[in-house]
């Protein structure tokens, strides 16, 4: 129940922040000249392009890391299987060398 309340409260705060931000941003934009607005749009467009490229790089980097981790887990699994077989073989040899007890 407290998780639901916290989630609702968090959403309310996000919505309240977004409304306040939009209102303040609108006030600021109303005071700018046409050329200032165009400059801001160009800058925002550059920022969006940069963030999209960073996101794409992160996606590929994340995929590479996941592939590396999967390969490492697979390698370790094979190594574990080989060690289990070796352990079984050594136990058997140890029993054979000790002879009947």
Description:
The mean pLDDT is 85. This protein has 101 residues and is mainly α. The chain contains 2 helices and no strands. The protein starts with a helix and ends with a helix. 93% of the residues lie in helices and 0% in strands.
Features:
0% strand; mainly alpha; 93% helix; 101 residues
Short description:
Helices cover 93% and strands 0% of the residues. It has 2 helices and no strands.
Nearest-integer average pLDDT: 85
Strand content: under 5%
- Reading the helices and strands in chain order gives HH
Instruction: State the distance separating the first and last CA atoms.
Output: 64 Å
Helix content: over 70%
Uncertain stretches? none
Number of strand elements: 0
Q: State the secondary-structure class.
A: mainly alpha
Query: How many helical elements?
Result: 2
Summarize the SSE layout with pairings.
Elements (H helix, E strand, L loop, with lengths): L1 H29 L3 H65 L3
